[in-house]
Amino acid sequence: MQSTNCLNCGSVLEPSQRFCPQCGQNADTHRLNFKHIWHDLIHAFTHADKGIFSLIWQLAYKPGIVAREYVEGKRKKYFNPFTFIILIVGFASVILISSGFTNFSGDSRVPPNPISPFLNKHVNLIIFLNIPLLALFNRLLFRKDKINYSENLVLAAFTSGERSIFFSLFIAPIWVIFHPPFYPFLVFYLLCWSCYYGWACSQFYSGNKTASFLKGLLSTILTQIVTTVLVSGAYFIYFKFFYTRH
Hints:
Shape: elongated
Order of helices and strands: EEHHHHHHHHH
Strand content: under 5%
Distance between the termini: 77 Å
Mean pLDDT: 87
Number of strands: 2
Helix content: 55-70%
Radius of gyration: 20 Å
Strand order of the largest sheet: 1-2
Largest sheet: 2 strands, antiparallel
Number of helices: 9
């Protein structure tokens, strides 16, 4: 068997070496699949690697490049994306609930129901729901790039984590301190997120950068539409089949 090179640092690996002697990365950096994703999710609940603050900084200016390098094999270089999203969303959910920015019980026209308090308490589920939806729409919109669904999940996880950081550090404080009009401010927040994700897509995928940016924008719009439909559907089912007027 011939020697190979480490995909993380480029050092020469002998056939008998299971780990790179220079950086320590596993020599077997196979293409991502659901088995690998599942292993990373289990790892996310039992370990916490170094480098999360470095990752946050790098995701601020090269999100697509970070995700692309991770997919291509440089996994020792970066904090695990699924550990990252679980930790960050947990933190951001506390900020989100405390700030009162999202309040599913705030509309006086909606009668008392069990769905609103559940969503208020578990708003992190909405954030997590967006990740597989983003990956799905990217898989469809960028199918010519031959990036599989699991690899698209990496981009969605990294960028969604950074989105939560942006909300916690900028959006929530502005909302609490200045309390601007809700819907214009919400549109501003979603526009910032869509542009950021489009930019990440222009770095992550091959081909025309403008086209990739616009496809990324479309992916966030479709994700938002589906999320809204699912939440609205939950309300509809409850009020249609379970709600009893007093």
